[in-house]
Write a structure and sequence with these properties.
With about 80 residues, the protein is mainly β. It contains no helices and 5 strands. The radius of gyration is 13 Å and the shape is globular.
Length: about 80
Amino acid sequence: MNENKAPQEAVQPGYIRLVKLQDEGRLQKGDIVETARLGQCKVAHIQSPDSICVITADKRYFNLSGLGFKARMATA
């Protein structure tokens, strides 16, 4: 266990935490996010700047919409 790392605060209900981005400043498929209810999830796809689909560790899909920020959409 890394003792130098400060413990993370719990994610507040209604918020998502960006845990691991492949490219700084850009949310895209494969990035890791966390919510209070779902825990850490992988971004399955971005539907719009305000809506993403995530997959949980137990392989369930959820649509998170009304995120309150404009995700910059990455085109492959």
